[in-house]
Nickel import system ATP-binding protein NikD (Halorubrum alkaliphilum), 420 residues
Amino acid sequence: MREDVLRVEGLSTRFFTGEGQVNAVENVSFDVREGEVFGIVGESGSGKSVTGLSLVDLVGSPGEITDGELWYRDAELADEVREEFPDVVDGEYVDLRGVPESVRTSLRGTSLSMIFQDPESSFNPSLTVGEQIAEAVEVQQRASSRPRSTRARTDGEEYSLGSLVLSFALPSRRYVSEESRERAIELLELVGIPDPVERADEYPHEYSGGMLQRAMIAQALAGEPDVLVADEPTTALDVTIQAQVLDLLSELQAETGMTILLITHNLGVIARMCDRVGVMYGGEIVERGTLEDVFRDNVHPYTEGLLGSVPDLESVGGSLDPVPGNVPSLLDHEMEDRCYFADRCPKAMEACLERPPDTRVEADGDHVVKCVLTDLEYGESPPLPDDHFETEGADASDGGSNESADASDKSASPDGGDSR
Ligand code: SF4
């Protein structure tokens, strides 16, 4: 079996907003193995993207990782920090939450990198695409030459007004170095951008959506990361371009051997790309396992509902069968102390009115489910009447806002919207 490159244990990320505490990610655990594609799937508002941002330490204020451990395998780093921080080293693994922020920053891009959801808003419109990729290359080179410490170009004089004027007068000065420019062009070529020399000097608005997504992948690869977190990398693209970008990710993975954590709401993308998958709901991973565990031998009714809402080409003309109801509010004071899916679950029982634990379906297996159905047959505990949660809903709307900062009002569908 392949070794874990990342072990996430009990991760919780909260946002402290004016409306109250939002439990965006709650006690999430999973492992990602070297060279695999691990997928995270769920509808909008389930906590997928915040999980990805937490892994690369990019949760900004008012958010904060409040609990959990992120064990990353890096023998060199383990040796470097073992003496000073013995409690956060376990063999070749280092708990990234226990090391100084400067260490985590130095790992970003070089060890763990991220492709963001929306390339159009992620690129700086006032710099050429080549410059921005070259900057990522430069950061990686500085990190390599000064391990565990890095300084972005923005710290230096390169962005002064004088240098901006100079950059327009002398285009080659826009790049930190000729080497980083050449590497940026190589990376653009690697991701299939035609005429990369010319394209490197173009601005983001001159790229099509598909090309910009490729450029973002090039930027994420600049540091030759071990783990690439790809957050909805194809959401904004049309179907043909989606297929091209997915093919590209597969090719790059085969070439470089990197590990990919793929975040998507699209079960088709999961089936096509992933080795293993975690299904998220209400900030939790409610079922995880191999594709076979989740697609064929699933236990959690939410997983079953998601799969049931996928359009079936065999029954053209039939209606879609979405999971009824809405994703739960993630506001702490509105979250009920029970299974978060109970108000939408067709198999809700009295036993579900307590928080279900993570349970392995087989003692020595990897298929883990957060649902009482791992131990009980439906009906072994008294089923809840259909109107059981109506009073709860009425109470919640009387007591204050029923909106989550993260919740969507869409019915669940694996293709129901973007992630967050
Ligand atoms: S714990 Fe109960 S309510 Fe929750 S998903 Fe399982 S059966 Fe449904």
